[in-house]
Amino acid sequence: MRLPHERGPVSRHVIQALSSGADPATPIALGPGALIEDADAQLALWVIYELHYRGFDGVPPDREWDVGLLAIRRAIEGRLEQELRDATRDLLRDAPRDGDIGQQLLDLVAADVSPSPAAFMQRRASREQLVAYLRERSVQQLKESDAQSFVLPRLDGPAKAALAELQYDEYGSGRPERLHATLYADALEAAGLDRTYGAYIDDVSALSLACTNVMTMFGLNRRMRGAAMGHLAAFEASSSVPCRKIAGGLERVGFPAAVAEYFHEHVEADAVHEHVASSDICGAMVADEPSLREDVLFGAATCLHLDSLAGAELLDRWTAELERAS
Amino acid sequence: MSGTVTVRQCPGGPLLVRGAETIRDESGAEHEVTRPVVAVCACGKSSRKPWCDSTHKSIPGPMTGR
Predict the structure, then answer these.
(1) Contact criterion met (CB below 8 Å) for A95 and A296
(2) In this predicted structure, what is the pLDDT of residue A202?
(3) Is A240's CB within 8 Å of B54's CB?
(4) What is the pLDDT along chain B (66 residues), one digit of tens a residue?
(5) Could B57 and A275 be called an inter-chain contact, meaning their C-beta atoms sit closer than 8 Å?
(6) CA distance to partner chain B, nearest, from residue A263 (Å)
(7) CB-based contact (8 Å) between A110 and chain B?
(8) Which of A54, A297, A314, A316 could form a disulfide with A117 if both were Cys (CB 3.0 to 4.6 A apart)?
(9) If we measure between CA atoms, which residue out of A237, A138, A240 comes closest to residue A193?
(10) A311: closest CA among A92, A126, A113?
């Protein structure tokens, strides 16, 4: 994968350090606004994280452990985590301090009433809008489930067995052609898009970068393993119904079957995974380490918060397009 | 596979089945299990039977778990 184009001073600093081999160990100044909407900071973080996944053409693999880049990562992560804890505090104010965490996670998701772009995609979205959606999600879906794999060695016992079981399904249950990331690449290609990992990194929004970065932040920081699994539970529990609607929308505008197939697979898989993630993973994790309860809920609330922002961004964009067209 | 099939009823939701190789529906048709765990529809409203498609979440009443 090629290094992306910079989006401001912080990403320029990181990308130039990687392309030139220079030492990045100079202080960076993050902008004053919300990091979640800061494309420059999110891209910088994404680039640093990608060194742990697939790397970049021409960048030596040992830059993964460049202490200057790790310092920048920690500075961005610290702000981002604080911002997310502040943003989810109200949602978690009344969260029970004990009881069945699996059911509490499902209840938290069920209580979420954020407007969903899935219904719009099912009934109204144009072919171009659906293509734009596929492109926007590609940055996350082409490495689907990879962030959660970082958590496996940090768990033990029933929680580890359950996460391995869920990941095995995400990774195609032994059939490479059924890897979920590969199904997504097939969907992109069938829709006339580029299936290459990272192909659309220069096109996606700050929020799309933030959504994938948060999963990596939770996955790569052992301290946040509870948040990683809470996020996974909320993600899975809020996926099956929207995927059914999105598949319907893709079929409505007449895409080839491979485009909707990714979403059909998730209707079925995520109806399973929400229970595995909430009860078998998070339930076992909290039983084993009760102090993780709060972070499990924080991870779930973060997922819902980001989904709600990302959904609103898409709906605003599409509503504006409809108004311009009418 | 261990040969043991386990079934768990998720409150208000599907049956989680582990260890089965096929599921036979009420008409006698066999459905191959291709996942380590499957969710079998328990509300009767799924459009992908025997598998759960989360339709139970859209049905008011006890099946929503509310």
Answers:
(1) no
(2) 97
(3) yes
(4) 468 999 999 999 999 999 999 999 989 999 999 999 999 999 999 999 999 999 999 887 654 443
(5) no
(6) 12
(7) yes
(8) A314
(9) A138
(10) A113
pLDDT (tens digit per residue) in A77-110:
999 999 999 999 999 998 888 999 999 999 999 9
Cα A86 to Cα A173, A178, A259, A295, A325: the distances in Å are 38, 39, 38, 13, 38
Nearest CA in chain A to B65: A107
* CA separation, residue A231 to residues A109, A152, A226, A297 (Å): 11, 15, 8, 8
Q: Would you state the structure tokens that stand for residue A134, as one six-digit string? A: 């596929």
What are the backbone angles phi and psi of residue A48, rounded to the nearest 5°? -65, -40
Residue A168 has pLDDT above 90, yes or no: yes
Which of B2, B9, B54, B58 is the best substitution to test chain A (most A C-beta atoms within 10 A)? B54
Q: How far is CA A129 from the centre of its chain?
A: 20
Cα separation of B17 and A271, whole Å?
12
Instruction: Kindly determine whether residue A271 and residue B14, on different chains, have CB atoms separated by under 8 Å.
Output: yes
**Is the peptide bond preceding residue B50 cis, with omega within 30 degrees of 0?**
yes
- Its pTM stands at 0.95
Q: State the CATH class of domain A98-325.
A: mainly alpha
Q: Is B16 on the interface with A (CB under 8 A)?
A: yes
Query: In chain A, whose CA is at the least distance from the CA of B9?
Result: A275
Q: What is the DSSP letter of A253?
A: T
Gap between the Cα atoms of A150 and A155, Å rounded: 10
Q: What are the structural domain ranges in chain A?
A: 9-86, 98-325
CB-based contacts of A179, cutoff 8 Å, min separation 6: A170, A171, A172
Contacts of A240 in chain B (CB under 8 A): 53-54
DSSP state string for A125-160: --HHHHHHHHHHHHHHHTTTTHHHHTTGGG--HHHH
